[in-house]
Amino acid sequence: MKWRLAVSVAVSMALSPALAETQSPFGHHPLTPQARDAFVSSLLTKMTNDEKIGQLRLISVGPDNPKEAIREMIKEGQVGAIFNTVTRKDIRAMQDQVMALSRLKIPLFFAYDVVHGQRTIFPINLGLASTFNLDSARVVGEVSAREAADDGLNMTWAPMVDVSRDPRWGRVSEGFGEDTYLTAIMGRTLVESMQGKSPADRYSLMTSVKHFAAYGAVEGGKEYNTVDMSPQRLFNDYMPPYKAALDAGSGGVMVALNSVNGTPSTADSWLLKDLLRDQWGFKGITISDHGAIKELIKHGVASDPKDAVRVAINAGINMSMSDEYYSKYLPELLKSGAVSQQELDDATRHVLNVKYDMGLFNDPYSHLGPKESDPADTNAESRLHRDAARQVARESLVLLKNRLNTLPLSKSGTIAVVGPLADSKRDIMGSWSAAGVADQSVTVLQGIKNVVGDKATVHYAKGANVTDDKGAVAFLNEYEPAVTLDKRSPQAMLDDAVKTASQSDVIVAVVGESQGMAHEASSRTDISIPASQQALLAALKKTGKPLVVVLMNGRPLTLVKEDQLADALLETWFAGTEGGNAIADVLFGDDNPSGKLPMSFPRSVGQIPVYYSHLNTGRPYNADKPDKYTSRYFDEVNAPLYPFGYGLSYTTFSVSPVTMSAPTMDKKGQVTASVTVTNTGKRQGATAVQLYLQDVTASMSRPVKMLRGFRKVNLKPGQSTTVNFPIDVHALTFWNARMQQVAEPGKFNVFIGLDSARVQ
Ligand code: BGC
After folding, report:
1. I need a labelling partner for 178 at 20 to 30 A (CA). Which of 213, 413, 598, 657 fits?
2. What are phi and psi of 176, to 5 degrees?
3. Number of structural domains the chain divides into
4. Of these residues, 237, 289, 323, 468, which one is catalytic?
5. 522 and 656 share one domain
6. Ligand 1 pocket check: which of 110, 113, 209, 218 to mutate, most ligand atoms within 8 Å of Cβ?
7. Whole-model pTM over 0.90
8. Closest by alpha carbon to 98, among 355, 353, 364?
């Protein structure tokens, strides 16, 4: 199961150190914290306050800030960093302007939302989490950093590690799901693999973990909404992933737009100073999210724009994203003493520190290389890493149902490929698809054609619009043309699809959400497949042909009806540039699915929040002995439709009872929990073996299960392997009622299984 990225060297060359030295107006300095502090302290003494304020400004290139306006700002030292510029040519031009026009020649850094790939688009992060494979995360991190650095970028607004237990929130697509441990370990791996040994290296990228804090817990799953939770829940469930990313060395933190317990994160000096800096020892840079400083007025914690700047900088926001407020109001605030010189110097120091860590003072062109090495075609096919994308995408697919081994399909006969998402190049890339080019992505229809070749006949019918809801279409198309309505009537499309299906041996229906439906600003109250596509599935079912439903979506959906209708159900999320090929590999058995769900799939919206690591309550519901006065709904079962960690394979596995290396462990000790996993089926296959712990009796209620380890094993038919999980005190600690981090002696249950519900 271990595989590594084959690194292509074709694209560009690093500057030789000698050349770099001659190009830098600052000479060459060792990349150590001591040298950095001395360098930055000395530079600060040379800067005017206006130049310092300039360093705090992060601007997006676009209609509001055209390149000519930016040139002026650069000349006057009024800008510290740029985002949304993604070619070496444009980036080089701006850095040239800094060197030629500005007084101090402090290099700009360049950032972008490299969330799941830069040019090659990998599965969305919910899909990456489904791999339950850190090697996959490492490949995504390395390739993303390589491609982004090769475009001249220095920083990414990633990883996004907002734990979320509410699939109504559109941004669950960007994160790693409901589980604290899985999110933390995926986030940590991405930071390590993107930053590499040093963010100054030619193909490394500095990360900026987001959105600090707890953005994934917005009330009702409604975008930008309030977050309110106990400190225990905040620290036990929501904070660990940010902490893990920072412990891995993330150079940046993007601050959340939401408030937590009444204080907007952008205004929260406890969060950004006491916790982040003083307790966690963070040395990097804090960046406000888009426009967040002016939003403090609407939050009701600042009276006007100047006041918002006072609140934000005093709270610990170093760099201001996409507003001119710092530049406009900081001079007056300094004069009046509402913001101290120390506060300005600290914020500036943090910005200069990360530039130093990025190696920009040694070589402002460190991620650009010599001009002659710029690619003639930024979108050249040779710049993509398709093999890596196909492999990660294969591993991200989750088989939810496979009645009578409907899958894998045989490469013969006639196959009807149906559905509005079957041939959509844009949708398969998902949200935040960076500099990915839709035209370079492989749709499911194309992938199936590629994989079956001339062995089978493939017919296609769109069958339905993604949605016929005019209000939804208008919303999705508000900023860009994203969803189109077919010229034909819904009935004509349906009839065409039914005809195509009737003439085929099997139907592959590709349905779900368009990419814009699972994005920032795309919360839903109804998380079912849109009505137009439900009607399509019902009509296809009536043909009596085997119905394979391929789901494309960025959140758990309510799928009770589809689960009944479909003979096979494959969750593919948004699988990226090579998605269509990977999906076809799995549909036709060239690859055996091994993905597992990183979020529970509710039966209905009324069940939300439904997550596996809940507390037991004093009256837990027992499905074997149902009782009225227990914690339940009377019109719905308690369990989700598909639990966290769930996913089938074309083969079957057995798991032996758990054995422990010792029955007890002391605080400094370690025990090992082991099982033997056997492939009891007829095909080679992989599965993620999962370790869950329960603190049975503690000073406060602890979850019924907590994921504390997983291992992906790949076995031939009949083959067995022993899987060992070491457990030490770290797996048992929690924040108690007095907000002390403790591990309490007592009894712990150890469960191992292939999903969170079926454990030994
Ligand atoms: C999002 C961030 C993103 C930023 C820059 C904001 O709207 O909340 O996640 O990094 O835009 O694109």
Report:
1. 657
2. -115, 15
3. 3
4. 289
5. no
6. 113
7. yes
8. 364
